[in-house]
Design a protein that fits this description.
InterPro entries: THDP-binding, Transketo_C/PFOR_II, Transketolase-like, Transketolase-like_Pyr-bd, Transketolase_C. By secondary structure, the chain is α/β, with parallel strands linked by helices. 38% of the residues lie in helices and 16% in strands. Helix 1 crosses helix 8 (159-171) and helix 4 (73-85) runs parallel beside helix 6 (104-112).
């Protein structure tokens, strides 16, 4: 078990002056219920974890539009594909690892291949779920979702952007994967901040390096930028909440204008945001890059802060990555 550390998730965003807000799973659940009347074709299909994914909020408000299929993720996705074929907009929710790993073939054949208008919501993503351990940590989910043709893949940074992302995925025609987290995260955005699928949000300007992040690591990136500025290094910070389709224009501009890029994400090294950004950079404007992620390993059971510290998902790790990439010229 990973040991405790003086740091905690409550300290993420502190250097940047951010207040602690709700978990993105809580924001998703509340937003889904609030949008229920506006989107009467929305139905929820859950795998007996609605109290954790927060779809139970929608289920209590719209019981006739909510279906609990039990702990049977593959069947759950098949049901959703059938509902989508009748004109419904199914929102399928479970833990990210159960949804993407257990039901991948059904997602591929019942959702991606026929291009069904199904919305997949993976809760409890990343290692920050803590004590539940490796068997319940979705750390390869973004890679799996991005590999599916026609999918849109979204990783919101905070509650406000999770609410906006929930609306955006319901308005979008086609399959979507929305990644949510368990722990509380800093308030990066106000409720009136713009949100557009496929369009990165620039949170801080700079011309020395660009830090591209999403989800939990956005608050860390902002903290890292504050620390770097104290040493005369001005970092641009991009929230790349949509991993697919990627905002290539923002990446190309960052490479051209800052000359160095660091990508931070709560995901395996392979197949996630870093891989997607690197593919754009090498094709359009090659510049030195560094990556902050889980690497090529499963994590342990432990408190969220201790796990993030042990596996190098911190503002300090981002600062170190910036220093490495600057040393490469």
């Amino acid at each position: 078990m990973a040991g405790a550390t003086p740091a905690s998730n409550a300290q993420i965003g502190r250097a940047a002056g951010l207040k602690m807000g709700k978990a993105t799973r809580d924001a998703f659940g509340a937003a889904l219920k609030d949008l229920g009347n506006e989107f009467p074709n929305v139905v929820v299909v859950d795998g007996d974890v609605g109290n954790s994914t927060r779809t139970e909020v929608f289920a209590k408000a719209f019981p006739h539009r909510s279906f609990n299929v039990g702990i049977a993720e593959s069947n759950m996705v098949g049901v959703a594909g059938g509902l989508a074929a009748t004109g419904k907009i199914p929102v399928v929710s479970s833990f990210a690892c159960f949804l993407l790993c257990n039901a991948y073939d059904q997602i591929r054949m019942s959702v991606a291949y026929p291009g069904m208008n199904v919305k997949l919501v993976g809760s409890h993503a990343g290692i920050s779920i803590g004590e539940d351990g490796a068997s319940q940590m979705g750390i390869e989910d973004v890679a799996l979702a991005c590999s599916l043709p026609g999918f849109t893949v979204v990783v919101p940074a905070d509650a406000a952007s999770a609410r906006k992302a929930t609306r955006a995925m319901l308005e979008h025609t086609g399959p979507v994967y929305l990644r949510c987290g368990r722990i509380e995260v800093p308030e990066v955005y106000t409720d009136d901040a713009p949100f557009q699928l496929g369009k990165a949000s620039q949170l801080r300007d700079g011309n020395d390096v660009t830090i591209i992040a999403n989800g939990l690591t956005v608050g860390m990136a902002l903290d890292a930028a504050v620390a770097l500025s104290a040493n005369g290094i001005h970092a641009r910070v991009l929230d790349m909440h949509t991993v697919k389709p990627l905002d290539e224009a923002a990446i190309v501009a960052a490479a051209k204008e800052t000359g160095r890029i660091v990508v931070a994400e709560e995901h395996l090294h392979a197949g996630g945001l870093g891989s997607a950004v690197a593919a754009v950079v090498v094709r359009t404007r090659p510049v030195p890059m560094e990556f902050v992620n889980l690497g090529d390993t499963y994590a342990e059971s432990g408190d969220p802060a201790g796990l993030l510290q042990k596996y190098g998902l911190t503002a300090e790790a981002i600062v170190a990555a910036v220093q490495r990439v600057r040393n490469r010229g």
